[in-house]
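Q: How would the C-alpha cells look for this protein?
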Amino acid sequence: MSSRGTQYFEDAVVGERRELGRHTITEEEIFRFAREFDPQPFHIDKAAAEASMFGGVIASGWHTCALAMRAIYDGYLSHAAALGSPGIDEIRWLRPVRPGDALVCYSTVLEARPSQSKPDRGVLVSETEMENQLGEVVMTMRGMTLLRRRRTAG
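A: Here is the predicted structure in C-alpha cell form.
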C-alpha cells in the first residue's frame, strides 16, 4: 500500500508486509493493565509470577493485543478509508511477553476481495504479528478490515 494520503481498498497489495509500530513494555504497565483487565496472579504479583510456570512476570495476552491494536491504528487505520472490522478469526499467544521486551508489530495482507453485496467497499484479510527484540513471534492475529473503494468514495 502506498504510504501517502488516504489508503483505499485498491491500494492493498496481497503479500505486502508492513511494520506498523514499536513499543517497549514495562513491568509497571503490565501490572496496571492486568489489575484492571486480567488480574491473574502471574500478571499482577511478582512473587506469584516467579512461582508460576512462567518463572516471572508476563503481560496478559490481551495487553499484547491492545498494543497491537494501537500499532494498527497509528501505523495504518489513522490514514486508511477504514469502515471497521467484522471480526478477528484467530489469536495465538506463542511466547510470553516480559518486562523490557521491545515489541514490533507487523501486518501482512493475505487477501483482498471486493464486497459482493456492497460495491463501495472491499474486505482485507490480514495477519498481524508481534515480535520481540530477538525476532521471536510472540503473538499472531488474523482478522478482517472493511475499506472504502476509491472509485465510489466521495
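The CA atoms of residues 105 and 130 lie 5 Å apart.

The radius of gyration is 18 Å.

Upvote if useful.
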